[in-house]
Amino acid sequence: MRVAAAGAVGALWSTPGQAAEIPKVKLADGLDVPLLGMGTGVKAGNRSNALQRAGEKHFRDTIRFAYDQGVRLFDCADSYGSLPMVGQALKDKPRDSYVLVTKVWCHPKGGIPKEESRDDSLAVVERFLQESGSDHIDLVQLHCQTAADWTTTYRPHMEALAEAKKRGWIRAHGCSCHSIDALKTAAGDPWVDVVHARINPWGVKMDGPAKVVVPVLKQIHAAGKGIIGMKLIGEGKFRDDKAKIDEALRFSLDLKCIDALVVGFEKPEEIVDYKKRLTAALEAK
Question: How far is CA 125 from the centre of its chain?
């Protein structure tokens, strides 16, 4: 982990009256992000997600609680429908005080309403700016890549995101991967700044067992690319098992190739609990 360990543990908690902080890590050139981020894609698709279905007030209040607790990385996607709601929840916060991540759905089927065009990712990024109420998005990914040849199939979308980066609309680009072949391809393509990768000790909802996935992640990291770890507890499979949460946090930190972690928080108490457990994992190091 690219974290100053001495300050990392203390930074997780604040004194009364001060904003809580999460230690920052370097994810890509010019992009420092909090070690712990909030995912908004729990049971998501077709612009719907579990947090939203619990009510817009609950969504907004949970985002703001996360912000106040120092969780300043918010992981969205077009298919989740969450970016406009996150932007609205944080509209009164300084833009440089939080990190926005979102993803383009460029596949010919699924993900977003079927009547929408999927051909112009530059236009999609422009819409993201409007939806978020921001002049830039920190990281935009090509969502849910599974094929070994995704960099050929979706090269026009990659070029569109490169143009968005050139214009200053986004600060970094990359992909989220849902197969070991897609991960291997990401490792070798210089266009990729950051990869979202599924990682946990048990191989649950991953691209293969840890012994297969981890070497590829280390290759990606050695190539100078950032990695955001997701599905830490098997896409919620072990969400009520505190021992497995602890195991997953320690496992991810010990790999030394996972730069940041995102968790699909649905309740404020989950945020507090993960911060406590992350503190313990860092102290153990």
Answer: 17
Whether the CB-CB separation of 228 and 198 falls below 8 Å is answered with no
Identify the CATH number of the domain in which residue 25 sits: 3.20.20.100
Region 75-80: what's the mean pLDDT? 98
Nearest to 230 by CA among 44, 51, 39, 52: 39
**CB-CB contact of 257 with 226 (8 Å):** no
Q: Which residues, in sequence order, are CB contacts of 3 under 8 Å at separation 6+?
A: 23, 24, 25, 35, 282
Most distant CA atoms of the chain, gap in Å? 53
Q: Report the number of distinct structural domains present in the chain.
A: 1
- Digit-coded pLDDT (tens) for 216-271: 999 999 999 999 999 999 999 999 999 999 999 999 999 999 999 999 999 999 99
Question: 57 lies in which domain range?
Answer: 5-284
Residue 223, both tokens: 């190539």
Mean pLDDT, range 87-103, rounded to an integer = 97
Using the structure block, give the residue that is written with the tokens 């920052």: 24
Query: At 215, which amino acid appears?
Result: P
Give the separation between CA 26 and CA 43, rounded to whole angstroms.
29
Cα angle 141, 2, 33 (rounded to 5 degrees) comes to 40
Q: What's the pLDDT tens digit per position in 105-127?
A: 999 999 999 999 999 999 999 99
pTM for the complete prediction? 0.93
